[in-house]
Amino acid sequence: MDYRRGGGAGGCCRCCFSFIFTLGLTALFLWLSLRTSKPTCAVQSIYFPALNRTLNNPKNTTVYLTLRLENGNKDKGIFYDNVNLTLSYIPNITDPKKIKLVNDTFVTAFYQGHKKTAKKEVNFSAAELNWTAARAVNSTTFFRVDLATAVRFKIMAWKTKRYRIMVGANVEVNEFGEKVKKKKKGIKLSGAGKNGGFSLKVGVLVNFLIWVLLSFCNGV
């Protein structure tokens, strides 16, 4: 009688262990499948005709910017809300907190497929800035570009909730009105951006189920 009872308990534990192992593999698969990475945002190019000393035309106050958005996710698309862009002037780079708003604009909401790169061209109207004073500061001038949007990730046939992205970077402009750094992928915008919440919740739920099964086996 005692042997049969022990064999039953051992069989139950083996069953629990097998189920927990399978559940662990499933959790790993779900985590790898559902985890998301926020898009990479960068200033691909920017041009200030008013700062181009070879033109000597401070009255041309339009600013031309090309934004680069890269979706590095292998199998997840991204739905962007309107992408809001703000351009600010930094009179003194040693005190970058004292900035002057130039203007803002936005990129209309759009969808981006997985492993795709989008380039969006926008213009800023900057007639309010004193361009003559900006030209007289130094051979190089500093500006700041800030980006704010919210994204939803497309995973198979459904969408996640919205995740906010707020990033920015300082841009150094030379005497030709172009950004100094000539990197191929532009100047990366960095800052806050939260995502991956769904995959985290899945992991917590699976861990809770494993804990319940372990408690059950110990009770047996």
Q: Could you give a short description of this structure?
A:
The protein is of the alpha+beta class. It has helices spanning 2-34, 131-137, 197-219, and strands at residues 40-52, 62-70, 76-80, 83-90, 100-107, 110-112, 117-125, 141-155, 158-159, 163-173, 176-178, 187-188, 190-193. Helix 1 (2-34) packs antiparallel against helix 3.
Give an account of the 3D structure:
This protein is α+β, with helices and mostly antiparallel strands and 220 residues long. Helices cover 29% and strands 42% of the residues. The strands form 2 sheets. Strands 3, 4, 5, 6, 8, 9, 10 and 13 form an 8-stranded antiparallel β-sheet that branches. Helix 1 runs antiparallel to helix 3. The chain starts with a helix and ends with a helix. The mean pLDDT is 82.
How much helix, percentage-wise, in residues? 25-40%
How large is the radius of gyration? 27 Å
> How many individual helices?
3
Element-by-element helix/strand order: HEEEEEEEHEEEEEEH
Strand % is 35-45%
The average pLDDT is: 82
How widely separated are the two ends? Answer: 16 Å
Number of separate strands: 13
Largest sheet: 8 strands, antiparallel
Which structural class do you get from the secondary structure elements?
Answer: alpha+beta
Uncertain segments: none
Broad shape: elongated
